[in-house]
């Protein structure tokens, strides 16, 4: 049966499902339910303690939220300082960040060298995995393929369910090391089987950084420049972690808290990150920008852009979601420090690649979106460009195809997820089980012959 035929067959059930799953928004207030686990002022409900990441986007004064410029800390250290540190030394930063997130402090030179060696040694996939799990079962969606590959790894692991720290750490290190390979191979399989392109399966390397290795595996001729690898490395560093409350880290923590295996928890986190309101927004920004470009005559005409953004917010344009992708954040108000850094990179690259007209359009949208949002939604909520707004623009200048934008986010965020899994498992050690209030009346069971 085709989907079209099934839709026709189940249309009655669709109506039932739609009409019987509505919760009146007024009831959330009535019962004091924190919808989306948010307090009335938009701040998150305190759900746990963490030492891994800290996101700061506002100050609180007398219970009032005071907007502020954003800051991000990994294990207490400002990400800006971390970036300055490794860039000044002309080193790659991502592996150092994984070390910091997992083990709590910055590595010494020799500790970092040893960790890099361990990552390099763990890049290989199990025997037959590429052929049986990736090439024989490609997917049009790389995030879907990545999640399936992570789950499939379970059956290649001799100790998949052993949750002792040593074994869990081994699994985490292997996942951090293997994510770029899984993504690169999934992409090559997709390009070949879905897009009719030639198939390139490059062997992995042990001595390159994560960013270099990924570009090596991705490019047909294995070639990349040092500055390209450094830029990708920066993107990985900026995407590696965002506190315990972001949707995919929280997913990792919720699933881990049941005591389940590493692969189940990480596959769930990948599913979360794929969502268009989370990591999937980077590709959505690209699609939105294509749509805006196709519908606007003059890319510098602010009035024309404003009117199109209004239509987007009113669900009359783009994908009908009503969202301006890449804008807004649960914590940041005036700025997301990662978006600020990525914008600088995007600007420099736009000059180099003669793409200033496009960059300017991004900039105008970034400038106008908060005003239009306030006007159309009648909201006092501060919204700013988030990490997903400029990242795709940067990736496009590295000739990275759009279907890899969110998977690259996953290649970075696996570092944070692993740290949160370990902290949840050994630090919190309680099954996460909040309450849901039932708002339905009790009813008697009716025998089938008596039902209308
Ligand atoms: C890596 C990351 O995950 S960064 C975020 C990536 N996501 C995006 O860029 C998608 C666009 N942005 C959004 O959807 C939101 O800003 C989020 C989900 C990121 C954060 O949302 P929150 O700050 O929690 O806002 P919340 O969900 O409370 O929304 C309040 C209202 O503002 C609206 N809103 C928030 N951001 C936007 C936006 N960018 N465009 C349109 N409306 C928005 C919501 O739809 C909601 O409207 P409603 O009351 O009519 O339903
Ligand atoms: O923190 C959040 O809600 C979203 C997130 O993961 C990020 O911005 O990197």
From TrEMBL:
Active site: 329, 388
Biological process, per Gene Ontology: carbohydrate metabolic process; tricarboxylic acid cycle
Keywords assigned by UniProt, alphabetized: Transferase
GO molecular function: citrate synthase activity
Gene3D superfamilies: Citrate Synthase, domain 1, Cytochrome P450-Terp, domain 2
Any single Gene Ontology cellular-component annotation: cytosol
Entry keyword annotation includes Transferase: yes
Catalyzed reactions per annotation: oxaloacetate + acetyl-CoA + H2O = citrate + CoA + H(+)
SUPFAM superfamilies associated with the record: Citrate synthase
Pathway: Carbohydrate metabolism; tricarboxylic acid cycle
Family note: Belongs to the citrate synthase family.
NCBIfam families, per the entry: PRK14032.1
Protein's name according to its UniProt entry: Citrate synthase
UniProt source species: Vallitalea pronyensis
């Amino acid at each position: 049966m085709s989907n079209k035929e099934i839709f026709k067959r189940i249309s009655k059930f669709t109506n039932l499902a739609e009409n019987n799953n509505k919760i009146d928004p007024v009831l959330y207030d009535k019962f004091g339910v924190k919808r989306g686990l948010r307090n009335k002022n938009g701040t998150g409900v305190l759900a746990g303690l963490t030492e891994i990441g800290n996101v700061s986007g506002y100050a609180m004064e007398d219970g009032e939220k005071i907007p502020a410029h954003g800051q991000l800390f990994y294990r207490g250290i400002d990400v800006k300082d971390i970036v300055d540190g490794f860039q000044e030394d002309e080193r790659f930063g991502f592996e150092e960040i994984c070390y910091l997130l997992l083990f709590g402090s910055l590595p010494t030179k020799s500790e970092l060298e040893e960790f890099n060696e361990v990552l390099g040694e763990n890049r290989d996939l199990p025997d037959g995995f590429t052929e049986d799990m990736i090439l024989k079962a490609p997917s049009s969606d790389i995030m879907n393929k990545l999640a399936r590959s992570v789950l499939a790894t379970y059956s290649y692991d001799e100790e998949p369910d052993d949750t002792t720290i040593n074994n869990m750490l081994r699994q985490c290190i292997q996942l951090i090391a293997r994510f770029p390979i899984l993504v690169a191979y999934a992409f090559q399989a997709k390009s070949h089987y879905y897009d009719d392109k030639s198939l390139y399966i490059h062997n992995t390397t042990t001595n390159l950084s994560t960013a270099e290795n990924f570009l090596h595996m991705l490019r047909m001729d294995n070639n990349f420049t040092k500055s390209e690898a450094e830029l990708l490395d920066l993107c990985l560093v900026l995407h590696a972690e965002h506190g315990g409350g972001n949707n995919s880290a929280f997913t990792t923590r919720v699933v881990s808290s049941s005591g389940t295996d590493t692969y189940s928890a990480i596959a769930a986190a990948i599913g979360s990150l794929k969502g268009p309101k989370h990591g999937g927004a980077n590709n959505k920004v690209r699609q939105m920008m294509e749509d805006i470009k196709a519908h606007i005559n003059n890319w510098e005409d602010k009035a024309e852009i404003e009117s199109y953004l209004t239509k987007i917010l009113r669900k009359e344009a783009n994908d009908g979601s009503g969202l301006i992708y890449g804008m807004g954040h649960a914590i940041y108000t005036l700025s997301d420090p990662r978006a600020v850094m990525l914008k600088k990179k995007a600007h420099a690259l736009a000059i180099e690649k003669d793409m200033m007209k496009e960059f300017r359009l991004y900039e105008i949208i970034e400038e106008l979106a908060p005003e239009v949002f306030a006007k159309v939604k009648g909201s006092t909520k501060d919204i700013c460009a988030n990490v997903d707004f400029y990242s795709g623009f940067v990736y496009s200048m590295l000739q990275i195809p759009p279907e890899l934008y969110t998977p690259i986010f996953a290649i970075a965020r696996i570092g944070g997820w692993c740290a949160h899994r370990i902290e949840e498992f050994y630090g919190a050690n309680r099954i996460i089980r909040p309450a849901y209030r039932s708002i339905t009346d009790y009813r008697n069971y009716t025998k089938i012959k008596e039902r209308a």
